[in-house]
Write a structure and sequence with these properties.
Length: 339
């Protein structure tokens, strides 16, 4: 069995649950090892959390550019880990990366660096006759195909698509069954590649405070607004409803293009793929490119004034009506129910 490298996703010192999902997938495919990219000195604490998840082998790269929007440090770290493992005589058969916007870019760049095969947006992966076979939805999820790569497979995995069975809980405690990270293997990364050729962060604009809303791909409830919400103010309805459930706000591309919200909220083929327990679509027609990013949700509720809107084809519950009439009533009903 070859070695499977997993790129850990973490945020402000805590590992994201998608990392646990990637580990679950990796454990089916070979010998999992984690590549951890952190800022100076931040690595050992995260390695401790990984121990709680049963990980023993960690490749640690510290970079001054970790945590910036540059994806090149992660590419450099993964490339260094693959080369180091190979130099030590190990076969590396797969690299698993979260199918986030940044993850997709890292994967594509890594494939160029290593002349590897890229499989994007997998929802499952297993070994068949020693070869990694990934399941990938195509044509907006209407079909799935099985994909294999020639040689090293770099696979981006859709968040929430893999059940993290068998991976210990997320308690960052070294005593949790699963072991201890043997001393992390420190990676030297190519300074030029790390910084990125020709790319530089010139300013960082923090997202306007959205209270305690969770991230779009992590949230168990997502309320998305479309062009039907009409204005910034109308778009606020999606936020009001999301906040009732402790959920995240998403958007269609038309809503983003109309300037109703920031681009980072876009759900769909060219935005985020979300698989929450509950997805509520407000004033969204349900174009195939939007559905590609949300039809894996557990339960889908749609509100649209057009009874023929395609979103109703994938909705479990549909309300034909004006969002400005229906949503305030819905909010009132939820509040009354909880009182
Ligand atoms: P519309 O299609 O204009 O629909 C608005 C809906 O709101 C209508 O159904 C209308 O009946 C309803 N409505 C209007 N007023 C009200 C009201 N008061 N109450 C209730 N309902 C109301 N789109 C994405 O979302 N994500 C993507 O990632 C994406 N990627 C794309 C990639 C490519 C290559 C291309 C070509 C397109 C992509 N699109 C994507 C765009 C996609 O095709 C649609 O144009 C877009 O999803 C439409 O957004 P919408 O549903 O908000 O707008």
């Amino acid at each position: 069995m070859g070695r499977i490298l997993v790129l850990a996703e973490h945020n402000t010192g805590t590992l994201d649950t998608v990392t646990r999902e990637l580990l679950a997938a990796a454990a089916r495919l070979g010998e999992p090892a984690v590549v951890l990219l952190t800022g100076p000195g931040a690595g050992p604490a995260l390695a401790g959390q990984l121990a709680g998840w049963g990980v023993t082998d960690v490749y640690l790269a510290e970079s001054t550019y970790a945590g910036t929007r540059l994806t090149t440090p992660a590419v450099a770290a993964l490339e260094a880990a693959v080369r180091l493992a190979r130099a030590a005589g190990a076969e590396v058969s797969g690299v698993l990366i979260a199918g986030t916007i940044d993850g997709r870019e890292v994967a594509a760049r890594l494939c160029v660096r290593l002349t590897a095969g890229l499989i994007s947006d997998a929802v499952d992966a297993r070994l068949r006759d020693g070869v990694i076979v990934a399941t990938v939805p195509v044509l907006g999820g209407a079909y799935t195909v099985e994909a294999v790569a020639k040689g090293l497979a770099v696979v981006t995995v859709r968040p929430h698509s893999i059940v993290a069975d068998g991976i210990p809980g997320s308690v960052p405690d070294r005593d949790v069954p699963g072991g201890t990270v043997t001393a992390p293997i420190r990676l030297e990364i190519d300074a030029e590649l790390e910084r990125g050729r020709g790319a530089e962060i010139v300013a960082v604009h923090p997202r306007p405070a959205s209270g305690i809303r969770p991230g779009l791909t992590e949230a168990s409830v997502v309320v998305s607004g479309g062009r039907g919400l009409g204005s910034d103010e109308g778009f606020g309805l999606a936020g009001d409803l999301a906040d009732l459930f402790g959920g995240a706000v998403g958007a269609s591309r038309a809503a983003v293009e109309a300037g109703l919200c920031e681009p980072g909220l876009q759900v769909g083929q060219t935005g985020a793929t979300v698989t929450p327990e509950l997805y509520i679509a407000l004033g969204i027609s349900g174009a195939i490119q939007h559905r590609a990013g949300m039809q894996g949700a557990g339960t889908i509720i749609a509100v649209n004034k057009d009874a023929d809107a395609p979103i109703f084809a994938v909705a479990d519950f549909g309300v034909v009506g004006d969002v400005f009439t229906v949503v305030p009533q819905l909010i009132e009903a939820v509040v009354a129910h909880r009182a």
